[in-house]
């Protein structure tokens, strides 16, 4: 199978980083420079990030949702990010222990000139890597339409930095706020009223699980046809939504590039620290000059730790299906309870599937008949839509004294059949 442009760029970066990781690690241990060893571990962080990104490209283009993985592999990058972060934290602990030992009993650096050369070469490799990260072509047009194809293939012109685990994890929080803002500005609560009559069946064969998807949702992992029984025209709301999504895409890319800049800056600081240590040991005769090596290694470790710990926390939060940080489940529940006919709400859950797909499920006890529940379900959906949640499952629980026994039994039977 031929490699895509993106896979080629990631592979080139992997080769460069692997070469410099081995070079820094071997030279660092050979000349007893803990700072150079620590910087090599920092380079190892890049290698793991690129491996996760390459895996994400392969998975996205070769694996779709199936009976075993009904959501597909949408969270593969998050799992990889967590593994990456945990490994980095373990490395930080190892370097910390070694640095403390070096502070107690410093070792002589035998060849500071070689350390300087390797550190300089590492800095150059980071600069080359930055250009490769952002070399993503110019054919971004034509992808912001309103079509309903939900292919999981990754755009070959997509910047490589968007696939790095730290940026994938960060985008979960950033996109939540953007989508919530989009929902509040581009849709009125009843802008999808035809969905009530076409997707909510009012016949006795209606399912009690009201599972609705907004027509703007582009990431369900399957195809949606347009045979909902109503015309699907591109109105002013659609145009406004397209405009916002275009801005959202640019905003996300800007955030990702900012993250890559900070990441490369951290790498560069590590290289500069190694170079300064080498120059200091080479050009001075202080008796305490060898203490600079473990001190610089501690600074590099702090840089790695400052990125690894937040990445670990954010990835864990997503995998634990925590409520998106910009959404208040309590506030939404209060809004839902204000709907006429709802007695209580329980088993209410909101979580991220991907950075731009938010899912909610809830049970509602209603003091109404099944026909009125359809209106209630539409209002619930509108509230959640206003908070950026477009995939909603509502399970009703009816009070028997509000409907006839025959209707209740019919509805219950249909509910069992739907499961």
Automatic annotation (TrEMBL):
Boundaries of every Cation efflux protein cytoplasmic domain copy: 327-397
Basic and acidic residues compositional bias, start-end: 207-235
Domain spans labelled Cation efflux protein transmembrane: 11-320
Membrane topology (UniProt): Multi-pass membrane protein
Disordered: annotated span: 180-251
Segments passing through the bilayer: 12-31, 43-60, 81-101, 113-133, 260-282, 294-312
UniProt superkingdom: Eukaryota
Predominant place of localization: membrane
Stored Gene3D superfamilies: Cation efflux protein transmembrane domain
Protein's UniProt keywords contain Transmembrane: yes
InterPro entries: Cation_efflux (IPR002524), Cation_efflux_CTD (IPR027470), Cation_efflux_CTD_sf (IPR036837), Cation_efflux_TM (IPR058533), Cation_efflux_TMD_sf (IPR027469)
Name of the protein this chain belongs to: Zinc/cadmium resistance protein
Organism, scientific name: Wickerhamomyces mucosus
